[in-house]
């Protein structure tokens, strides 16, 4: 039986939206595969290094989103 802690991870990309329950290592792999993505937990933008050091039992939902680009025409 897998006893690793899992958390809900929302991933948004050009293909749409995906939800998965992932371990800490799996989540960090997803973040590394989406270089430049914005990562949110607890409705707060975080750096991947913060998640590496986090107590996974306390992290809660993680959202991986493409960065927003703004500007004036």
Write the layout of secondary structure elements.
Elements: E1 7-13, E2 16-22, H1 24-33, E3 38-41, E4 44-46, H2 48-53, H3 56-59, E5 62-65
Parallel strand pairs: 1-5
Antiparallel strand pairs: 1-2, 3-4, 3-5
Estimated structural class:
alpha+beta
Number of strands: 5
Count of individual helical segments: 3
Low-confidence stretches: none
Please indicate the percent range of residues in DSSP E strands (runs of 2 or more): 25-35%
Folded structure, characterized:
- This protein has 73 residues and is an alpha+beta fold.
- The chain has one domain (9-65).
- The protein has 3 helices and 5 strands, in the order E-E-H-E-E-H-H-E.
- A 5-stranded mixed sheet has the order 2-1-5-3-4.
- The radius of gyration is 13 Å and the shape is globular.
- The model has no long low-confidence stretch (mean pLDDT 88).
Quickly list its features:
alpha+beta; 73 residues
Write a brief caption for the model.
This protein is of the alpha+beta class.
